[in-house]
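Researcher: Structure for this, please.
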Amino acid sequence: MKDGVVKAIGLMSGTSLDGVDAAVLETDGEGFAQPGQALSWPYAPELRALLRQALDDAAHAKPGSSPQSVSDAETRLTQIHAEAVQALMAQANLAPADLALIGFHGQTVLHRPAEHRTWQIGDGAAL
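Model: Predicted structure, token format:
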């Protein structure tokens, strides 16, 4: 491997609530990026329903409050991302020590730029 090049896994979940996309990337963080293996890890219908409830509850929550559905969704969302990482690592024949980092933005449950408010869920430390 070239000097300064590391392996990372990037995770993406979006507003479609269909699942997690995960990809391996080799990069130096500046000018070199080589994509590797990737997969899509679908959400179960129960998780989609929980995320929809969290989105609705977050939209009606007072700033600073956290509805139980949002907390529950965060826990389950983090777990499903961890499953996707483990599956991708197995597919790519990688061990945890092979990775320099995992990019995890979580899931947006509220985004109101005009109010200077955004709310992402996902527990990076647990992942």
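Researcher: Any notable elements?
Model: The mean pLDDT is 95. The first helix runs from residue 45 to 60.
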